[in-house]
């Protein structure tokens, strides 16, 4: 006599096959216990799955932006980097695709060469990223390469801006949207700071008025460029930049009317300022640097009254660093 083990699910199917009506499910002996046992096993499986996914999210925290179903789909095709592409926009803001290519002969491997934004803007990585091994590991490599690439782009963009201060309409065409806007804001912060120091030294607030005229001149050049024939990406880039520059012009106007001549005054400290710091130190601006490079159309322009939000962010930033509030 040969005895075969019968699983709870097989036993349940056997019972259902014997029944003529669903109403007879209740009285069937042992059915409730079997269903309870199966539910307990299912809960244990779910807990184990959650723990497994948590280990993956711990290695690559951007997986927290994904649902369990999406993450399982990625992990199930980790050897196929192209299958991860549809989920990139959920992990990185406005990153649509990575430019991938196979390298080597037989048994070739995938490498990421650059990134595309949702607007179609493309940025080359400083160096290719090998897409091999656990997906959470090489996605972490991609993220780090994004940061290094953007930092290098921003540094070079700033240096180029200093050479083309009077030809910004040409300068803006050579660089990615986000680094253009950030470099412009860094330069504006440096220029206003210098003007305030000079105004205090000379006791002449008209220096701010001179800078405002330069700001208006820059805006006029951008306006002329917008009226010309531009690609979709270039138009988005310049429109986003103009939005930022218009706000900068309005800030200069308010500072001039207030007779401001001190870099430590509240009216100046309450503005959102960007600094390029060459040495490690406490952050001066409330926004941490981002890893991804949003396209020019995704740059958020200031709301009609941005100072309230900037004050809140700045106060939170200083409180977090243990430096007190404004």
From TrEMBL:
Biased composition (Low complexity): 290-302
Database matches in PANTHER family: DYNEIN HEAVY CHAIN, DYNEINS HEAVY CHAIN
Ranges for domain Dynein heavy chain linker: 29-157
A single GO cellular-component term on record: axoneme
Top-rank lineage group of the source organism: Eukaryota
Protein location: Cytoplasm, Cytoskeleton, Cilium axoneme
Name this polypeptide is given: Dynein heavy chain linker domain-containing protein
